[in-house]
């Protein structure tokens, strides 16, 4: 669902109404780098405008709370009940409940369009930080709520948000021997799930392109494996071609012009890359070992992958043309499914050691390895577009695989509110 009609406009009318102009920077800031940071108390009352206003405020509060950086206050504690976007709040009423920040808004319908005004206030500085208006079709009210959440997050942390995004994943149903795996997509908060394949064949390792409009994934059919490109806007599906051997683990290059993938022949797998314009294919590794799970660096100049050429699966980095492969992981255990962060700062991975699976991160040179999660089976990390949160799948002994998220400090670990089973998540960039 592409939101072509969403309009973001600065509220010139706010200033004409005599309210304070936004500060050069907020007096209140949220430090995203401190793992022990206390969440910022923030008040998000229901927006004016009936149920639509209440629903939008509810999604905003839930987004901010799930980030772990904000603590939405209980609406029952609110003293001021008659907020109006045209006038300043009664700041003493909000100081009384220790709200550091306040979000209020108004929802109207004009000529069939949903119009949402909102304000972000620094309560103790008695200062307006943001005044914005969004216009969209009424059915896109959740996306408007995500857009507002991103604006609040960026204003108070100094970093881009990640709420107006989607996640493609493998939806799983049934027992181990009869499990059905369908390609699925949902909002990052688990809402609006829909299914892109019918479950008649197994799908694995879906990935978004940089435009968020195209997917690549592996399909495992009785006649063999194949890699597909899937256009979300048109629904058109295209095979990457016929290859001798099993093909798997496709990953887009940052510009979307190439797909790297693995081909297994006779027990050995190597990494190849296809130019999607010319459909020419180049082989990047030629080692008598298992080379797989390629992931491009954000600038497209390097690829991280895992290989057992050293005796057990470890992480390696090479040039995007396959040059100069070098090992970067040297810890105990087996390292798999590496994913370069969107900022280039870290590489996330799955690690198996001590009878447990872990999600971890390390710098691209292999230094500063940190384990973020541990369980019976944690695997397949994917990054939010701001590089602050990871999503992965967790399976308990005898249980179903579920989607979870953790922040890069490891402090904020929580299940994704999608009710069904899921694995192989892949996070989209911010939507347009």
Automatic annotation (TrEMBL):
| Any GO CC annotation of this UniProt entry | periplasmic space
**What is the protein name for this chain?**
Tol-Pal system protein TolB
The entry sums up its family as follows: Belongs to the TolB family.
Quote the function comment for this protein. Answer: Part of the Tol-Pal system, which plays a role in outer membrane invagination during cell division and is important for maintaining outer membrane integrity.
- Which intervals hold domain TolB N-terminal? 29-129
Keywords on this record? Cell cycle, Cell division, Periplasm, Signal
Compartments in which it is found: Periplasm
Q: Which InterPro entries match?
A: 6-blade_b-propeller_TolB-like, Tol-Pal_TolB, TolB_N, WD40
Q: Which organism is it from?
A: Phenylobacterium hankyongense
Signal peptide (from-to): 1-26
Q: How does it assemble?
A: The Tol-Pal system is composed of five core proteins: the inner membrane proteins TolA, TolQ and TolR, the periplasmic protein TolB and the outer membrane protein Pal. They form a network linking the inner and outer membranes and the peptidoglycan layer.
Q: Which NCBIfam families match?
A: propeller_TolB
- Tell me where it mainly resides: periplasm
Q: Which GO BP terms apply?
A: cell division; protein import
């Amino acid at each position: 669902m592409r939101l072509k009609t969403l309009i973001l406009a600065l509220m010139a009318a706010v200033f004409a109404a005599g309210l304070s102009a936004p500060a050069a920077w907020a007096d209140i800031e949220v430090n995203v780098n401190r793992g022990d940071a206390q969440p910022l108390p923030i008040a998000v009352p229901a927006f004016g405008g009936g149920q639509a206003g209440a629903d939008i405020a509810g999604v905003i509060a839930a987004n901010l709370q799930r980030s772990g950086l904000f603590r939405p206050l209980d609406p029952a504690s609110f003293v001021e009940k008659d907020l109006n976007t045209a006038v300043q709040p009664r700041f003493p009423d909000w100081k009384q409940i220790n709200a550091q920040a306040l979000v209020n808004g108004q929802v109207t319908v004009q000529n069939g369009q949903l119009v949402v005004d909102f304000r972000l206030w620094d309560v103790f500085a008695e200062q307006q930080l943001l005044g914005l208006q969004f216009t969209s079709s009424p059915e896109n009210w959740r996306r408007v709520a995500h857009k507002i959440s991103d604006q609040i997050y960026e204003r108070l942390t100094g970093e881009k948000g990640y709420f107006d995004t989607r996640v493609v994943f493998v939806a799983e149903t049934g027992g181990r021997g009869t499990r059905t795996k369908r390609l699925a997509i949902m909002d990052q908060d688990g809402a609006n799930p829909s299914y892109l394949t019918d479950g008649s064949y197994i799908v694995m390792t879906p990935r978004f392109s940089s435009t968020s409009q195209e997917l690549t994934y592996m399909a495992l059919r009785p006649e063999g494996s194949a890699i597909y490109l899937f256009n979300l806007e048109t629904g058109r599906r295209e095979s990457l071609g016929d290859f001798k051997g099993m093909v798997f683990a496709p990953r887009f290059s940052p510009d979307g012009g190439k797909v790297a993938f693995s081909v297994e022949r006779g027990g050995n797998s190597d990494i190849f890359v296809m130019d999607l314009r010319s459909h020419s294919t180049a082989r990047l590794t030629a080692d008598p070992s298992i080379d797989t799970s390629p992931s491009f660096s954000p600038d497209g100049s390097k690829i991280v992958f895992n290989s057992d050429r050293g005796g057990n699966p470890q992480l390696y980095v090479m040039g995007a043309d396959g040059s100069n492969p070098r090992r970067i992981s040297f810890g105990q255990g087996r390292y798999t499914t590496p994913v370069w962060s969107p900022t280039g700062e870290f590489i996330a991975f799955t690690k198996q050691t001590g009878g447990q699976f872990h999600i971890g991160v390390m710098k691209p040179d292999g230094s500063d390895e940190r384990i973020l999660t541990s369980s019976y089976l944690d695997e397949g990390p994917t990054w939010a577009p701001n590089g602050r949160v990871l999503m992965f799948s967790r399976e308990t002994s005898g249980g179903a695989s579920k989607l979870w998220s953790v922040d890069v400090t490891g402090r904020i670990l929580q299940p994704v509110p999608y009710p069904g089973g899921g694995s192989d998540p892949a996070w989209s960039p911010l939507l347009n």
